[in-house]
Amino acid sequence: MKTVVMDLSYTFKSAVQKALGHPLIIGDPFHFCRYIYWALEGVRRRVQKAFHPYHRKRCKRIKHLFQKERERLDDKQKKKVERYLELSPDLREAYELKEHFRQWYQEAKMQGREGRMSEVKQGLYAFYRRVEASPLKEFHRAIQTLKNWQTEILNSFAFGLNNGFIEGLNNQTKVIKRNAFGFRRYDRLRNRILLHHQFKHQTFGVG
User: Which residues form the Transposase IS204/IS1001/IS1096/IS1165 DDE domain (predicted)?
Assistant: First the structure.
């Protein structure tokens, strides 16, 4: 095996290198992007503690809107987000940092496909500097993780690989198991999963 796409786990990385002879490791985009969204969520949870109970509850209810792409918000949603950004400079800063990262990520995907990896790297460095100029410790911790895994993260843009298909299968499998309220026999669970995914002639092992 020459290439492995994985989450940002040192334990998994060590095991992969030991078992597979140091293959090329690619950081899965879903897993490295979520550190930025976790940082935003951490700031929201921290600052809303100082809000009036009414606003604290309302802010929590719209937490998904802070995570959503700014351009996909309708006018009503934009007003809701702006209301709470006005209540906290830290929350506004966190929101802008999230948007900066998201813009870099979208541009980096295109640049990576075109082989412009130096631009991908420079854009990432610019994001680091933006965060380092910010007082938000949540984002400082997030970019430290990105720095620790920078090679693997940049590989994801250079090679355009991710675990999206496998993650989708895993999520569907979890739903099957949950909806069945448990299977007593593994072979029945296995057959149900294979039937759902229509793997009549699978070329790999399951379980």
Answer: 2-193
Dist. CA 165–CA 160, nearest whole Å:
13
Cβ distance 146 to 32 under 8 Å?
yes
Burial (Cβ within 10 Å: 0-12, 13-18, ≥19) of residue 50: exposed
CA–CA dist 139, 101 (Å, integer): 11
Burial 168-180 (b: 16+ CB within 10 A, else e): ebeeebeebeeee
β partners of residue 52: none
Global pTM value: 0.82
Q: What is the pLDDT of residues 136-158, one digit of tens each?
A: 999 999 999 999 999 999 999 99
Per domain, the residue ranges of the chain are: 31-146, 164-197
Contacts of 191 (CB under 8 A, 6+ apart): none
Cβ–Cβ under 8 Å, residues 129 and 100: no
Residue 153's closest CA among 33, 9, 69?
33
**The pLDDT of residue 27 is above 90:** yes
Rounded alpha-carbon distances, angstroms, from residue 124 to 22, 153, 154, 162: 26, 10, 9, 19
Whether residue 173 contacts residue 193, with contact meaning beta carbons closer than 8 Å, is answered with yes
Q: What is the largest CA-CA distance in the chain?
A: 59
| DSSP three-state, residue 6 | strand
| Joined tokens for residue 118 | 């130096």
Q: Which residue type does 53 have?
A: P
